[in-house]
Amino acid sequence: MTPRDLIDDLRSRINPDYAAQLGTESYERRLCAEALEAQADEIERLREFVAHLASPVGWKLVPVLPTEAMMDGLRTGSRKDVPGNLLCKIRWAAALAKAPAHICEVEA
Predict the structure, then answer these.
(1) If you average pLDDT over residues 25-32, what whole number do you get?
(2) Helix, coil or strand: residue 60
(3) How many Å apart are CA 56 and CA 59, to the nearest integer?
(4) Which structural domain range is residue 86 located in?
(5) Dihedral over Cα of 18, 23, 24, 25: its sign
(6) CA 73 to CA 55: how far, in whole Å?
(7) CA 25 – CA 10 distance, rounded (Å)
(8) Structural domain tally of the chain?
(9) Same-domain pairing of 50 and 1
(10) What is the residue-averaged pLDDT of the chain?
(11) Domain boundary pick from 39, 54, 69
């Protein structure tokens, strides 16, 4: 049985006529079911959040601004006459713009 199954079972034992009446078993069951649902929803949200923190196989976490070594790598096979690392910065910005958004950026 999953936590959602247990919550559904608890909800099935609530008498709607007494669910809002303080001191009844149905009232207590309703409070418990609501609290458990809120916790289950938060657990699911946190699982999704943590999944986005890990980098998938074949990916690497990279800084928002490239290091000098990274810009040297971006220059490989490209024009070296573009001043001020402009070409590297343009390529890096274009690559980051196409990267999947982090869950924190999506919710903000």
Answers:
(1) 96
(2) coil
(3) 6
(4) 57-108
(5) positive
(6) 21
(7) 11
(8) 2
(9) yes
(10) 80
(11) 54
CA nearest 40: which of 6, 14, 9?
Answer: 6
- Residue 77: what pLDDT? 59
Buried b (16+ CB within 10 A) or exposed e, 62-91: eeeebeeeebeebeeeeeeeeeebebbeeb
Domain check: are 4 and 49 in the same one?
yes
Dump pLDDT digits (tens) for 76-101. 655 656 655 677 777 777 777 776 66
* Res 69: pLDDT: 78
Taken as a whole, the chain contains a residue count of 108
In a shared domain, residues 25 and 46: yes
**What is the structure's pLDDT at 29?**
95
In this structure, are 63 and 20 located in the same domain?
Answer: no
Task: Identify residue 4 by its one-letter amino acid code.
Answer: R
Neighbours of 6 (CB within 10 A): 13
| Interval 33-81: pLDDT, tens | 999 999 999 999 998 888 777 777 667 677 777 778 777 776 665 565 6
